[in-house]
Amino acid sequence: MGALDEGQYNVVLENGVNIGGGCDVEVNGFGGENESLDIEDAVRVLLQGLGEDINREGIKKTPFRVAKALREGTRGYKQKVDDIVLGALFPESGLESGKAGGVGGLVIVRDIDLFSYCESCLLPFKVKCHVGYVPSGQRVVGLSKLSRVADVFAKRLQDPQRLADEICAALLEGIKPAGVAVVLQCLHIHFPNFESAFLDSNHQGWIKALVSSGAGIFEDETADMWADFMSLLRFRGIDVTKAGKRDCTDVSWCPSHTFSKIGLANSMMTTAVTSMLRSLGEDPTREELIGTPARFVKWLLNFSSSNIEMKLNGFARNRKDLLQSGGNTIQREQHMCSELNLSFWSQCEHHLLPFHGVVHVGYCSAEGINPIGKQLLQSIVHFYGFKLQVQERLTRQIAETVSSVLGEDVMVVVEASHTCMISRGIEKFGSNTATIAVLGRFSTDPVARAKFLLSIPNSAETL
């Protein structure tokens, strides 16, 4: 069975599909050099607005990396559905949907992992996409093309409902089936601001949205074919019972809309973000994008370079006094203490993309001396998290600071999910990074290290 040849594909042309010219995407999906340079200039303005030295090692190449990631992550603006579908329609006799005795039926591709950039705040969000269609005209489309068409629209600034509608409409127009159905499960990272992170220990890290779109015989949400579609998802353990078309008057799902009044943002930084939107091929005056630069800047300013005093010296001095008497250290039996699953949020300094996760702290404390408690350790974690960071440095800084407070042996494990692993061409969904820092006894005692590591719970569901 081969793809339809040029003569056979005239049927598609007669049905009104505009095949058009070739795709105008350049090598690796990038646009012109000038657009990338404009984005790099804008990123330098943002870094300077955060108080960073743009010539610092680790930051120096950030503008280039950010521009490359954004160009890759929004390459859908320069791709055409026609170029994907052309040559991918295959003849298959007996597929006459709706006719008595026909053997054609629903075709579904489930669990397509996608990511997109939220048009309200420019943060990436994850998508689990399920696409189904009912063939007609005795032809089917190559299954991989359903995923590729979905990816074209995901690689643009998006809202979940519009993303579902655009995928649905494009497939209906491109392959002329009897009907198309799309269900999206979307996850948007929910960063707290610096102040609320210290106050709300129960902050939820994700906002969820479940949306659907249907066309043709799926246009009626009560149609029997929808029941078939949902059943084929359910027996795979996919719960989409609440999927529906979101009303356009609903409040935006993006957590940035829950910010307190934005107020006057840094004008140079907002102008820079506006320039980035334009370079990506977007219209900054589009209604949904008008407040985006200010929201992005407000969020980014959580990670301003700062030297906030943590006021830990007095606490550390008091603890050390408990361990000393007349200038001599009191010998006490050591026992292991730990605080697990301390949440953190941070911003990768290499790509200006968020990463988040949990921190586990283990330390040896003298008998009779109370552990320092979760609240102080969480404050230390937040202090170092709310900066432009790399995970290795974050781990070391937390360990060194806890050690300076305790004057004792410390081990720190950081587990994190990095959005740069899904949003810049790598697309390794579900990957996770762990780093370790050890000081004092933990650096020389493998038994102590093993004991602490065994105490760490399974965090797969929390990252």
TrEMBL record:
It holds the Pfam family GTP_cyclohydroI. Pathway: Cofactor biosynthesis; 7,8-dihydroneopterin triphosphate biosynthesis; 7,8-dihydroneopterin triphosphate from GTP: step 1/1. Its EC number is 3.5.4.16. Residues 39-189, 270-455 form the GTP cyclohydrolase I domain. One of its GO terms (cellular component) is cytoplasm. GO terms for biological process: folic acid biosynthetic process; tetrahydrobiopterin biosynthetic process; tetrahydrofolate biosynthetic process. The keyword Hydrolase applies. GTP cyclohydrolase 1 is the first enzyme in the biosynthetic pathway leading to folic acid. Belongs to the GTP cyclohydrolase I family. This is GTP cyclohydrolase 1. It comes from Lithospermum erythrorhizon.
